[in-house]
Specification:
The complex is a heterodimer of chains A (343) and B (344). The longest helix of chain A is centred in the middle third of the chain and has 18 residues. Chain A has 343 residues and is an alpha/beta fold. Helices cover 31% and strands 24% of the residues of chain A. By secondary structure, chain B is α/β, with parallel strands linked by helices. The longest helix of chain B is centred in the middle third of the chain and has 18 residues. Classes of the chains: A alpha/beta (343), B alpha/beta (344).
Chain lengths: 343, 344
């Protein structure tokens, strides 16, 4: 992506808090990112790192209470999604932003036919009539590679296999030709051979339709295969962000490094023992005042316990939120950080 | 470890079949079978880890449960330490239970939420030994140390622990009676990547110190490559390929294994961009109605005419490497004798 292109989605300092019986959980703590037209941004993190909550906050998909968005802005085509009324948001979902959920079994309605569920957004958002919507629905099913699409429109979700259901979900998300597609772990529930089919489909669709995609996953391999840019999340913050090659070949955050080393591969050398990230991710009852990774970090030193590192540039379009300078092999000099991207 | 002449088979599975009946109508008339495990034969050596991989629904978990007789197998035999546990009377089977244990996939569901950690780990001791309360407590603390749980948490309930710690509780419970053979049924599938490595390393440490034998069931090929000495690849209730780890991952023989391995994404953008992938068409057929001939013939990229007629037999094609595929020489007698060549 050339620089200077206006992003389709620009999120600044997003904060989301859940109120529970035991106190507040700070799930998203000042996340900033942008998404440029036609690009695929991969979002990686463990469960509880806030990757899904970030994306769901943007579209008002979290029930409130318990969730509360307590700060930030999310500009989509110049309008702040976080300030929109429910009606305005409704108009954005579909033609503006499409969403694919993780589990295709629970996100399709079992009592309506697949055809009805694909036609619903077409009628609601694009005002299509019955025949027109049916023709478009059939076209969509063919596009996502479901054989005998015309007849399958009358089938119910249980008559489809897991991979086929995920294709239907993709067809629904694509129905209104969205500018941005958010895919929340779309292949996690699928087998590897079926996952390979879906990834192939997404590669094709990107070339054909050219929309921007946010792909949430915990599988680094999937990201390596399809993403242009990666954002690594930890404890509701962005730990590292950059072009996919830079992040995989020259990771600058200890968490990214550890994550890449801990996963074994099916090819190449086999390690005698797996590298381990000791300990557990933190439970955030308060917004982090220090580096949330310091307890598990091999590089941690005194400053990490005093301040929460801001994101700083470590390469072209590549930034990391860490006080350790891997180039120098030493901590950064202890003065206030200057870089613009705020954590 | 498996090499060396001293290795003896600990578990021998022969022609294991596990069918579940399909019934219909008010009288629950039987109209067919789901052939979850169909004629599976393999051996696990003492101290070895056999990885059992395959996609969901291929019968790998059913196979693991049938081997421990958590299901009643339809036919076949399972010899553990020379004793056929399929034929044993309930009483005798119960006496053998301490020697074989299981670690389950979902540590959330397999631990009783109303029991403390200490009582969960002590339950097998209470059932199978005549230890006093003090002896049990000592043993529980010993086990908690072994799996890396803090003794101070012995009186807490499972909900107070994270997923990885809960899996450690499950492992401690499985170890309580000093078993020789443990079936690990997707023990890391429910855990985060950074926690998976911790649990796998723990399982390996325990194997080294206690001389355990594992059947490691998983769909995660990269983890199986790490932990297993030999790997069996299952497809639709049957073993497609059974081979030592290194040659299997370096040069898979069966077209299904080839496709399965090529579908695993690589953690390297450059490799990913240039890698040749085999994308299989379609879905796995129903085990209630498997295709005629080779199980894999409906999706196989190298399918031949013979594959749709004759079922291939698991045959040793190279030392230690067994494949069920017509691309490789098959024994002349074919399926006539009904007994496929055994693993190892």
């Amino acid at each position: 992506m050339p620089d200077g292109v206006r992003p389709v989605l620009d999120v600044r300092d997003l904060r989301t808090v859940f109120t529970t019986r035991n106190g507040e959980i700070h799930a998203v703590n000042g996340v900033s990112f942008d998404l440029r037209p036609g690009e695929l941004l991969g979002v990686v993190g463990e469960s509880g790192s806030g990757k899904s909550v970030t994306m769901m906050s943007l579209l008002g998909l979290l029930p409130s209470p318990p969730a509360r968005i307590c700060g930030g802005a999310a500009l989509f085509q110049g309008c702040d999604l976080l300030k929109m009324t429910p009606e305005e948001l409704r108009a954005v979902r579909g033609p503006g932003v499409g969403f694919i959920f993780q589990d295709p079994m629970t996100s399709l309605n079992p009592v309506f036919t697949v055809g009805y569920q694909i036609m619903e957004p077409l009628r609601a958002h694009l005002g299509m009539g019955g025949d027109q919507a049916r023709a478009r629905a059939r076209e969509l099913l063919e596009m996502v590679g479901i054989p005998d699409a015309g007849r399958r429109l009358k089938d119910y979700p249980h008559q489809f296999s897991g991979g086929m259901r995920q294709r239907v979900m993709i067809a629904i998300a694509l129905a209104c030709d969205p500018k941005v597609l958010i895919a929340d772990e779309p292949t996690t529930a699928l087998d590897v051979t079926i996952q390979a089919q879906i990834l192939e489909l997404v590669r094709e669709l990107r070339q054909k339709l050219g929309m921007a995609i946010v792909w949430i996953t915990h599988d680094l391999g999937v990201i390596a295969g399809i993403a242009d840019r990666v954002m690594v999340m930890y404890a509701g913050q962005v730990a590292e962000q950059g072009p996919v090659r830079a992040v995989f070949h020259d990771p600058r955050h200890p968490y990214t490094r550890a994550l890449l080393k801990t996963v074994p591969s099916v090819r190449g050398e086999r390690a005698a023992r797996l590298n381990v990230i000791q300990g557990q991710p933190p439970i955030l009852m308060a917004p982090p005042a220090a580096c949330p990774f310091r307890m598990r970090c091999p590089q941690a030193f005194a400053r990490c316990g005093r301040e929460n590192p801001l994101r700083r540039a470590v390469g072209p379009a590549h930034d990391a939120a860490c006080f350790w300078d891997y180039e120098a092999g030493a901590p950064l000099p202890d003065h206030p950080m200057t870089e613009g991207a705020h954590a | 470890m498996p090499d060396g002449a001293a290795a003896r088979p600990l578990v021998e599975v022969r022609n294991l079949r596990m069918y579940f009946p399909i019934t219909a109508g008010v009288f629950r008339r039987k109209i067919g079978d789901v052939k979850a495990v169909d004629n599976v034969t393999f051996t696990i050596m003492e101290g070895e880890t056999l990885g059992l991989v395959g996609e969901s629904g291929c019968g790998k978990s059913t196979c693991g449960r049938a081997i421990l007789r958590l299901y009643e197998p339809t036919s076949g035999s399972v010899l553990i330490g020379g004793q056929d546990i399929v034929a044993l009377k309930p009483r005798a089977l119960r006496d053998l239970r301490p020697r074989m244990q299981m670690v389950f996939q979902d540590p959330q569901a397999s631990l009783n939420p109303r029991m403390t950690v200490a009582s969960i780990i002590a339950e097998p001791l209470l059932e199978h030994t005549s230890m006093t309360a003090a002896q049990r407590q000592t043993r529980v603390h010993e086990l908690m140390d072994q799996v890396g749980l803090n003794r101070a948490f012995a009186d807490r309930y499972p909900h107070a622990f994270s997923g990885g710690q809960r899996q450690r509780i499950g492992i401690a419970r499985a170890l309580a009676l000093n078993p020789r053979f443990i079936v690990c049924d997707e023990p890391i599938a429910a855990l985060d990547v950074s926690i998976q490595a911790q649990v796998v390393n723990l399982l390996e440490e325990l194997q080294d110190s206690l001389g355990l034998t594992y059947l490691f069931i998983s769909h995660d090929l990269s983890m199986v490559r790490h932990i297993a000495d030999r790997v069996a690849v299952m497809y639709l209730g049957q073993i497609a390929e059974l081979s030592p780890r290194e040659p299997l991952f370096a040069r898979p023989l069966h077209p299904y294994t080839q496709a399965l391995l090529s579908a695993v994404p690589e953690h390297d953008p450059d490799l990913e961009a240039n890698r040749r992938r085999i994308i299989l068409k379609g879905d796995v057929p129903s085990p209630a109605n498997p295709p005629l001939g080779c199980n894999f013939c409906t999706r196989c990229p190298r399918v031949m005419e013979i594959c749709r007629r004759i079922e291939p037999v698991l045959t040793e094609v190279e030392p230690g490497r067994h494949v069920a595929c017509h691309l490789y020489p098959q024994p002349d007698s074919g399926r006539a004798n009904g007994a496929p060549t055994r693993g190892q």
